[in-house]
Amino acid sequence: MDIRKVSLIAGGDKGVEVSYLKQEEKKGRTFTNEVKEKRKYPIHNDLDQLFKDLRFYLLHITGIIRDDMKKEMIDYEESDCVVNAIKIDGTEFSIIGEKRAVHGGYFKIESPKIDQHSEYPNFDQVFEIIKSIKEETRLYMNGTKMITVEEATIRQIEAGRCKEMTPENFSQFSAEEQKAWCTEYLEKKWGSFVQHQEDIELEDDVKSVEHDLTNF
After folding, report:
1. Nearest Cα to Cα of residue 137 among 23, 36, 17, 13
2. Each residue of 145-157: pLDDT tens digit?
3. Separation in Å, CA 75 to CA 52, 53, 97
4. Sheet arrangement for strand 29-39
5. What is the rounded CA–CA span in Å between residue 70 and residue 53?
6. Judging by beta carbons within 10 Å of its beta carbon (0-12, 13-18, 19+), is residue 168 exposed, middle or buried?
7. Of 47-51, 60-64, 204-208, which gets the smallest average pLDDT?
8. Could you tell me the pTM of the whole model?
């Protein structure tokens, strides 16, 4: 899969749209077409974190963050930014996101196209993240790597959508207590049985038997 663009849907909570190049044959001739494909399932934490890691570089490339700024200000600017898409063409990339405006709402920001000849000092670091995003996206799209029940529930807690629990109280639970609480919470929320991936044996052609988590 020659990925050219990865776009998060609703910040990844409702899935991903991927554009990639695909070779197709028609009447004996081979064509390369750009194909768009969606998967409507929340992204796993590793992919989510990689997009968050790009926030600093998007703000740095566009001049919102400067080298002479204090760490507290940099952290503040990052907290008001989201990255929701990347474009890739060989070793060239651009980053697309949104920044919170002073009076509320968000405005779109997009970096110019950057490659190894752009003299951007952090090119190597960004390109490593881009490569990791491409690999994690492949794993996500083919169902090899998925969000767990625990990860999905923790996102609900951190977003304030779970009134019964706070991040501070949840962090005091043991791993087994967290798993049990998440299972009970989601079963009450859905009114159905939640099965954890590690508790079942998947066949090669079965990628997921967990409940569809897009209805949060």
Report:
1. 17
2. 888 888 888 887 8
3. 12, 12, 16
4. 29-39, 16-26, 2-8, 81-89, 92-100, 106-110
5. 18
6. exposed
7. 204-208
8. 0.80
